[in-house]
Q: What sequence folds into this?
């Protein structure tokens, strides 16, 4: 269905969906790529809220990852599958047809990567009772996001990583800390302080940007 603010119409569309376990092809990456294209003409901040196991049997991850690096859209993912994601038994008869504990492990990595590269978040609830709290937290994130911009140093059309750190009024880095921080050797403030002096902050931001071409 097209984008709509009519909750009744959205509810009807969701009610018409049929969820059945089976061997049907899962085209998650292709569907997400199409959704990102739908969002492209819309100005301003854009977010995709994804409810999915993260399983994909069709392929297209590389193309989706490249598109997510280039587009200004954040992915907030709520992983489905519950306790099946943690299943590590020898027999896998309890898992949906066509899936294994290994495929769930890969799906978890993909959901995490999508959220991290776009400055979003990912949740892995084990029970349906956790969903209400997750949705409240998700809504709070969307209401309190803000943007920082800068002029790219080079126009080479390539992807460049970004490091973001929180600094106090004395210039001390409060976190996060990176092993590959570019100035770690020459910038003492970039080095992790002693554990007793650390203040834990978790930052959500895009991990890089695609520079414009010359």
A:
């Amino acid at each position: 269905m097209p984008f709509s603010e009519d909750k009744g119409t959205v509810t009807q569309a969701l009610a018409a969906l049929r969820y059945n376990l089976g061997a049907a092809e899962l085209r998650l990456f292709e569907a997400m790529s199409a959704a990102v294209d739908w969002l492209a003409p819309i100005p301003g901040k854009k977010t995709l809220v994804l409810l999915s196991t993260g399983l994909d049997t069709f392929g297209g991850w590389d193309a989706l990852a490249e598109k997510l690096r280039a587009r200004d859209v954040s992915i907030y993912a709520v992983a489905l599958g519950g306790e099946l994601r943690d299943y590590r038994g020898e027999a896998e008869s309890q898992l949906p047809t066509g899936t294994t504990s290994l495929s769930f492990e890969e799906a978890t990595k993909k959901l995490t990567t999508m959220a991290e590269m776009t400055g979003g978040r990912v949740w892995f609830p084990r029970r349906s009772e956790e969903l209400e709290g997750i949705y409240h937290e998700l809504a709070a994130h969307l209401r309190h996001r803000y943007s920082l911009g800068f002029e790219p140093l080079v126009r080479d059309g390539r992807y460049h990583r970004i490091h973001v750190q929180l600094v106090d009024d004395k210039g001390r880095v409060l976190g996060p800390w990176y092993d590959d921080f570019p100035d770690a050797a020459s910038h003492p403030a970039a080095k992790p302080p002693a554990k007793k002096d650390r203040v834990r902050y978790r930052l959500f931001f895009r991990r890089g940007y695609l520079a414009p071409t010359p």
Notes: Strands lie at 47-52, 74-79, 121-123, 159-161, 166-167, 173-175, 208-210. The mean pLDDT is 83. The chain is about 30% helix and 10% strand.
